[in-house]
Amino acid sequence: MRAYVVNKWVHPSELKLIIVDVYSSALNFFDFSHGKVAEDSPIPKGCPYKPGDRVFGQAQGCFADKVAVKWQAATRLPNNMTYDQGAGLFITWPTSYEALVGRAELKPGESILVHAAAGGVGIVAVQLAKALGATVIAAAGSQSKLDICKTYGGADYTVNYTEKDWQKEVLRITGGKGVDVVYDPVGRIAESLKCIAFKGRALVVGFAAGQIEKLPLNMVLLKNISVMGIFWGLYTSKEPSRIPIVWEELLGLFASGRIKPIIYDKVFSLDEVTVGLDALERRQTWGKVIVRVKNEEQRIVAKL
């Protein structure tokens, strides 16, 4: 059965949508894509884009040849980036940047422990922390992923958090002081309190391990620790003025060559989306996992 479902009566011109030819999409908890504004796309009033402009952004249904998005959800992609690189920018980079700069206020010369450092947000945090002048200790669960952290992220040190008393290695590296900042997208804040410095800052980025932590607040009290969260998606409604500032600073860092997107070495086709999602769930991947919908030279024939 096929049918239209009408939620609200509105003239098409009020939707403020553009049509994007999708070339690459990222595998994540949300859909993100990179492509060109389609030649047959409507251009709403106030929209700065024109057909053929390269953009990246957020939309539902990006595993497709074309997708309709609000033009405000799109950002112009730098000319020196590929479609695959652009597909992985939208959530991981501003999340990590705002976590380190806006929330933890990481300073040059400080130390940071990054958990799941070979993953999507982790490898970004490693790069950004290095660009900010910090000493980076990358933590992951295997030697192969620790090697990724050094090779692609530029981490100064690595620790395997599956080993017993791994916190002692962090304390050794920091001369007994502990790290100034903990960046955690996994759910290891409680464990990390054993190797965080006096007046350290712990960033709660996510719970990829599947369990929401319960923290021993006596440790927070005794070490004068600050525990803070980062949920970038909330900035759209709570602090929209911050969004263009973060993107301007990030795009400047990209242009300078001090940071760059890290793509998993297996790029999946549109037919392999479920294979890629399975690899992501099994923690077999590193960096950003990308689905290449089509190559740039392919002609788009699908119509909405």
Characterization of the model:
This protein is an alpha/beta fold. The chain has ten helices and 13 strands. The protein has helices at residues 83-87, 92-103, 120-131, 143-153, 166-173, 189-192, 217-222, 235-238, 242-256, 273-281; strands spanning 17-26, 32-37, 54-58, 66-70, 74-76, 111-114, 135-140, 157-160, 179-184, 196-204, 226-229, 268-269, 290-292. The strands form two sheets. Strands 1, 2, 3, 4, 5, 12 and 13 form a seven-stranded mixed beta sheet that branches. Strands 8-7-6-9-10-11 form a six-stranded parallel beta sheet, sandwiched between helices. α2 packs across α3 (120-131) and α2 packs across α9. The longest helix has 15 residues, at 242-256. The protein starts with 16 loop residues before the first strand and ends in a 12-residue tail after the last strand. Residues 299-304 have low confidence and may be disordered.
Essential attributes:
single chain, 304 residues, alpha/beta, 7-stranded mixed beta sheet, 6-stranded parallel beta sheet, 10 helices, disordered C terminus
Radius of gyration: 21 Å
Shape: elongated
Query: H/E element string?
Result: EEEEEHHEHEHEHEHEHEHHEHE
Helix content: 25-40%
Number of helices: 10
Q: Alpha-carbon distance between the termini?
A: 19 Å
| Uncertain runs | 299-304
Number of strands: 13
What average pLDDT do the residues reach? Answer: 89
Content of β-strand:
15-25%
